[in-house]
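Run log, item B.
One chain of 123 residues. Sequence copied directly from the ordering sheet:
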Amino acid sequence: MTTYLLAVLLGVVAGVLAGMFGVGGGILFVPTLTWIGLSQLHAEATSLLAIIPTVVVGVWRHHRYGNVRWKPAAVIGVASIGAAVGGAQVAESLPESTLRKLFAVLLLFTAAQIAWRARKRPA
């Protein structure tokens, strides 16, 4: 029961942050899902499915504000299909510890990039 309550809380927090900042749910979902006992691979796969409702609602709301640029989004989406299939195959072939370390590097790189951009922009 506690696992389900944590999952609900995770969904709420991720939904709010995704709506406010456009933060990918995987940044929150994957570490939390591994913390509650899923393997890295299962956490990543579960995260991809769990992001769908967040994405649908976020796009719907931002579309109402005129913030969505459909053509670039379609190009990125189509291009990512093959890459997602390839990425899943690579993830399946890697040892759990390597996959976890690569995800940690991705999180550190993302944090550094956000911090760098925030530092350079005037208030």
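Observations after the first pass:
- The chain is about 85% helix and 0% strand.
- The chain has one domain: 2-120.
Flagged for discussion on Thursday.
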